[in-house]
């Protein structure tokens, strides 16, 4: 399937086509919604605020629901997975991302399922990562041998900015994001895990080569910091690099390539403005020694969910970045060619709805979860 309207949009975006991914790029407000180059099929309905999706090798799905439920769905079966950790549901927090061990097999030793969730203390809350072994028996499913691998040490009563997405590299590490918890200066404190990307071994250990491990007072699990609220994370299929996107305030959503030990600037630099007043935040939009975004959005699209496209169904989209948009209620495709972002495309993904997660399935089709009290799982395929 060809890139629809690529050259028309290159003219609109102007110099954006000349900027490499190593430069900060801006999505112009004039980027418009295009006719959808796919057909949409609703696969599941009546999901209660679904947050994330994972594909199992037995052609089933795992779906998290914010209220603390993990669903195993296969065919007409919809089973609530038992033996989950205690999940606190407050504000933006609840049960969030789900991801499978890189060598996942239902009948092997690597049947680990990783979850991020809001963990309660004494009237305080914080993001946590854990894992359990998925066991499916007939009409029941459960997580055995639950292990909480990491929990935010400095919990607060804030209901904002929990993150939280999970990704893996090819070297035996798991990454996940923690938001600044609505207290922006925490993101600049390397002793505080809030506002950061955390890197662990698959069993929760601190890798010897973590960039801040031997720095005085720094939290040894931090891989990068200066983040506001990352709700999209994916591993580049060729380079193995971790890429993220995060919510800005009023404007300034960012796409970033994560580099070990780097400071990503929040709230010292941002393209966003203060809510309500429109006043500037911090010291501007760039500063020496701080990693700039690879792409950013003004006005905000409120991104959530992220995937690099690989598959045969949309052959011309290889390596493009797919992003869900909560505020703009669209599927966004960043057109990547020869290491450059040369365009941005926005589509209605079956219906005008907030998109919480976007994934590419083993079949090369695109799957999105809509964020609603009666959310849906929608599959996007090439036109018949």
From TrEMBL:
Keyword Signal part of the UniProt annotation: yes
SUPFAM superfamilies in alphabetical order: Soluble quinoprotein glucose dehydrogenase
Signal peptide: 1-26
Residues spanning the membrane: none
Species this chain originates from: Oceanococcus atlanticus
Entry protein name: Glucose/sorbosone dehydrogenase family protein
InterPro entries linked to this entry: 6-blade_b-propeller_TolB-like (IPR011042), Glc/Sorbosone_DH (IPR012938), Quinoprot_gluc/sorb_DH_b-prop (IPR011041)
Domain Glucose/Sorbosone dehydrogenase: 47-379
Keywords noted in UniProt: Signal
